[in-house]
Amino acid sequence: MHRARRSLLYVPADKPRALEKARGLDADAIIIDLEDAVAPQAKGQARDAACATIESLRPREVIVRINALSTPWGRDDLAAMKQAKPDAIALPKVRDAEEAIAARAATGGIPLWAMIESPRAVLNVGEIAGAGVAALILGSNDLLKDMGARHMPGRANLTPAMALCVMAGRAAGIAVLDGVHNDLADQDGFLAACRQARDFGFDGKTLIHPDQIAPCNAAFTPSREEIAAAQAVIEAFGANPGAGVIALDGRMIERLDLQIAERTLSRAP
Ligand code: COA
Ligand code: MG
């Protein structure tokens, strides 16, 4: 069974109102954040709030993003999560396979998700994906900062990292999730970024605001037209079981299109 991870909403663990609100939201997963969204003086209280909230967010998938293990808070975050047992722990600023393997050995069996958010991580993403992590999240804001780059239209300077993350995730057979869109008022740009992520092969996108959930879910859900087209491919091969290639509506379809069609239907609402 395909597990939908179209929309993953970050919720700062030091915002009780947002944690409360997250319960009723239609995101496929909630990422409770202890890291960048939480100020240093609020780390301890945020950790306690995260532990107290995980259960109330289920049956949704609940991930906790802890602080990097090199920070003053990372080890305490990890110890607390071993008790609180989220569905996964997201580890920021992973740089190589060695770090991923060491962290995975310390989670007490809780799946580890790796944030890919530095030039070094992008260059090592194949080995990180193969190090036993369960998902990759592109951390595009930190990545751009460390690249010394700026936000560009169409994310032109991020597309190599996006494609490498997808390659690495697919090669390892794990989920790959796109970074956030910062401009909350820019609905057209947000939708374009969701579609771009979908077309690149991402399973879903990380989000920062409840208003981003519905358009994101829609972008990562096959449309009625896509479902009808997939059904037509399946019917065409059903009617020609011995064929390798068929012409359908003036276009060549191959057996690989049958697999694509089946995947589309597995993601249909
Ligand atoms: N999760 C859950 N609820 C959220 C939310 C989130 N990420 N962001 C906003 N909300 C809630 C607010 O609590 C508010 O609820 P209420 O009206 O019932 O009180 C409602 O949605 C509207 O919020 P709004 O006023 O539009 O947002 P804001 O200006 O207060 O906050 C941000 C904007 C960006 C600061 C906020 O959305 C946020 O903190 N996002 C997550 C940031 C994050 O985690 N970053 C780290 C990863 S990149
Ligand atoms: Mg960050």
Can you walk through the features of this model?
The protein is α/β, with parallel strands linked by helices and 269 residues long. It folds into two domains: 7-219, Phosphoenolpyruvate-binding domains (TIM Barrel, Alpha-Beta Barrel), CATH 3.20.20; 224-266, no CATH class. It has twelve helices and ten strands. The protein has helices at 16-22, 43-57, 74-84, 97-105, 119-123, 125-129, 140-147, 159-172, 187-200, 213-219, 224-239, 255-266, and strands at residues 7-12, 29-33, 61-65, 88-91, 112-116, 135-138, 175-178, 204-207, 245-248, 251-254. The strands form two sheets. Strands 1-2-3-4-5-6-7-8 form an eight-stranded parallel barrel, surrounded by six helices. Strands 9-10 form a two-stranded antiparallel ribbon. The chain is globular. The two termini are 13 Å apart. The site of coenzyme A has 15 residues, from strand 1 and helix 1.
Total DSSP E strands? 10
Stretches where pLDDT is under 50 for at least 5 consecutive residues are none
The biggest sheet, with number of strands, parallel, antiparallel or mixed sense and barrel status, is:
8 strands, parallel, barrel
Helix content: 40-55%
Q: How would you briefly describe this protein structure?
A:
The chain is α/β, with parallel strands linked by helices.
Label this structure with key terms.
single chain; 269 residues; alpha/beta; TIM Barrel; 2 domains; 8-stranded parallel β-barrel; 46% helix; binds coenzyme A; binds magnesium ion
